[in-house]
Amino acid sequence: MRNRVALFLLWVFAVSLTTPLLTYAQDHQTLWQAWEMKDITTLGDDNTGSTFALNMDFKTQSGQAALQVSPGGGSDETKLAFPITGAVLQDWAQFDHLALDVYLPEANGRNPNRFFVGMADVSGGFSWVAGVFSDSDPASIRAGWNTITYPIDPAMQQTKPDAKYNLFLSFFNEDGKRNKVALTEPFYLGSIALTGMAATVGVGEGNGNAGSADRFATEAELLLGFDDDALLDAVARETFDFFWYEVNPANGLIKDRSTADSPSSIAAVGFGLTAIPIAVDRGWISRERGYERALLTLKTFATGGVQGKHGFFYHFIDMQTGERVWNNEVSSIDTALFIAGALTAGEYFKGTEVETLSAQLYAQVDWSTFAAGGKLVSMGWKPEIGFFGNTWDHFDESLILYILAIGSPSHPVPAEAWAAIDRPVDAVGEYIFLPGEPLFVYQYPLAWLDLRDKEDSFANYFNNTIRACLRNQKFSADYAKRYKTYEDGVWGLSASDGPDGYRAYGASPANQDGTVAPYASISCLPFTPEAAVSSMRAMLTRFGSKVWGEYGFVSAINADQNWYSKEYIGIDQGDVLLMIANYQDGFVWKLFMQNEHVKKAVAAVGFTDKASDYAVVPAFLEKSR
Q1: N- or C-end of the chain: fewer Cβ atoms within 10 A?
Q2: Angle at the Cα of 33 from the Cα atoms of 31 and 38, rounded to 5 degrees
Q3: What is this structure's pTM?
Q4: Closest CA to 413 of 366, 363, 369, 368
């Protein structure tokens, strides 16, 4: 069971609706977030002497006052009891866990390490219903905010809607001999939520859980009623949750994908580090929690908690140990994406340890060694074979890598590396392209690099991406009679999951099978906004809960083979989130482009103000014909 904390009520659901605010959310439903909105005089101590008060020094995830719990000191357990109606408890049948945010002060001499929740029917007296201990991993509990999860006992799911109940939360410290030790110092409670209503989408099935399918279908229908701004806000908010919850809270490592046994992807961590400033700025999490998560993550990398070589890191690593998995490579491009995220977080939390560690990690990357003293950077290194013979020598997502490598404060490659990249030109479309045409290669660099009004000796890369997005859309429309997935304006061909596994799909006749990756069209938002939003609406209209679920849009769909992914991939989620933020207000672009080393590299490779709206610079286009 993944630890989950309470999700903000999807406030955007109220933007264009006159009906009451709904609390639909992926696999969790908020019971409440703000203790200040509850009558805390109704809280009881169950004869343990504990007292309760609001405290603004320890704010909840939503920036509101936490509930201070002060133990009485005379009881082995510190308890909190509060009334809840049977009508509210009816929703418990749809979930399998309760999640509670708990803040444990580092200065405390002793904090709770055991957590219990119980329920009693108090309609006409007192009748015990059930109680359970938390199933949160004790090793993951630490000073600061924690998410404590409790499995919901079946008896708690069989309540009477017209009855009255009390919930009892018990906290205590257990020593090495399993003796209870009385607590004496305050700790703090945040949001409470129901969690664990997973969407199980499989081959030929759609969502296997009828309840979750209905929930997500309703969400999809509601989203279609939003105006475009509210729709983007909602999609971004849900997409962010992947990075906040699919994480090891002890080290900040983020999963590659939303499966239980997924390793961490360092590229996903890079996108996640960029996601944190977005979430703080949008009010989804507090600045304190965002800073804490970013600092924890960077410390893991900076203190040797992740294996690597010459300042680069393995592409996939164990979520617990940070060690290499799957015999995979030390990856230069994935390290670049991680560093891009680290620098973005550093710029947002400027003047803090986050900025210091991001700069340290950037300086440790030995780009020149990975270029073997030359210009072009090797794709990777393995202890079994050494450096890969293949280098990043042609146009693709490596544009971000070369900006970082050329701008390095310690181990740069020469600026001439930029011109050494091969840039094939599609003479018909007049844009620089990658054979196979997966969209992500155009999008990833520009998730951080703001090249809207710039060109070098070869191209205006922003306009170049516009051409690629439009071509992808047209290609899908042209093949809609062959593949029904592409009907009604659905498009987006790029590297993604598919019926036969992961594949670098693209807008090429031999590189498709009817699979659409929602992130691909959505992430064209800054470049072709109308086409991107149109595709989002078309997917929600046609596929509903088959394309919309726990963290927003799923990784891929294929209507021709009746296949719908049940998973979410970190780098896809990142592409969506960053591009929505950039479209809305240039948020990531502003942060990343203010870094002094990035500015130096952009100048060094010859970027100037754009002369016109072409994609390929005329002189280079003529030379390429």
Answers
A1: C
A2: 85
A3: 0.72
A4: 368
